[in-house]
């Protein structure tokens, strides 16, 4: 069968499919900017609330704008009781599946679910930013046979998230680390989940549809699941002195070291360093310094791979931080989703504002044209 000359870009690797004004990534240098601001400055000086405003509105807020935005976030933390009922009904599923189902259900209760204007999509994105943490922690309590801890307006986004886990207010240090984690995860170009969200939005489906699909894409181990797998790996290694052999055996059997490698970065993921110090400090504070030592030992064992552009990514340190904060392994990916709602929202708005249906092509590699055989003759 005749086909035109085709250049295949499997996995769309290296393919630019649109423009964005939101996030800049230089994979060779290991550079990440949100709206022109370096992730290092934001991780050190900003908060999740301020960074979300920056992503969603394009500029850093004044104090009055930030106060107003923060008040809106706080006022939207509750979820409808019907959605809590749905969480009860599906409570035995993986937390990412429960989150996907609950976000999908939220659309039925959102007053602007049919409105795809930028203004309405932004308002929906702000509501989702507030509601997703509540869903994750409501499910955590429900599956453990407890009543959900209602959100409080007295705490910031990160503290309220941890508070809803067990009704205990986190220490300022723990809350600050969670806040940094959310800042680092707020957006990251056209990764699989953002691309999925954009593809859904390109059909003029709405933000809840796009975020539901984004959550589905994020749930896989090649994307959001790595932090969970890093913690499993650290536990299997058990002690720092076992790390070198573990890594050697894993690579010899064709396995991949979780928390290493990235489709875009050939240098170290710039987000990793902000969590590295967090793991070091937190594991010392909790009297469990071996976790930091294990990660250090894995990094050392992987150092020959740096020449091939395989470095640590953000997930390498995130999992241990969550673990040391008493968060169960299967909530690690939902935490990623909690941080990513602003990024998905702003990318969906960008998609709507310059919309074109995302519809690439597949090169046919099946049988030549052939005649249909009636079933009696097969
Ligand atoms: C993230 C990831 C899927 C990106 O993959 P990719 O861009 O498609 O790169 P490839 O799968 O083509 O890998 C390129 C080469 O590097 C190797 N490589 C990539 N990541 C590796 C890892 N974590 N451990 C060991 N080797 C790795 C591959 O084996 C491959 O080697 P080869 O050329 O000899 O076959 C991949 O690095 C990975 O699976 N990492 C572990 C999971 C993870 O941490 N994900 C979180 C990402 S933020």
Give a short summary of the structure.
The chain is mostly helical.
Question: Can you offer a commentary on this structure?
Answer:
There is one protein chain. With 378 residues, the protein is mainly alpha-helical. The chain has two domains: 23-219 and 333-353, Citrate Synthase, domain 1, CATH 1.10.580.10; 226-324, Cytochrome P450-Terp, domain 2 (Cytochrome p450-Terp, domain 2, Orthogonal Bundle). Helices cover 54% and strands 3% of the residues. The protein is built from 16 helices and three strands. Helix 1 runs antiparallel to helix 8, helix 8 packs antiparallel against helix 13 and helix 12 packs across helix 14. The longest helix is centred in the middle third of the chain and has 26 residues, at 118-143. The two termini are 25 Å apart. The protein binds coenzyme A (COA). Coenzyme A binds next to loops.
Low-confidence stretches: none
What is the strand arrangement across the widest sheet?
1-2-3
The tally of helices reads: 16
Q: What small molecules does the structure contain? A: coenzyme A
The CATH topology of the largest domain is given as Citrate Synthase, domain 1
Number of strands: 3
The top level CATH class name of the largest domain: Mainly Alpha
Judging by the overall fold, what is the CATH architecture of the largest domain? Orthogonal Bundle
Strand content: under 5%
Order of helices and strands: EEEHHHHHHHHHHHHHHHH
Q: What global shape is seen?
A: globular
Number of domains: 2
Overall residue-averaged pLDDT value:
95
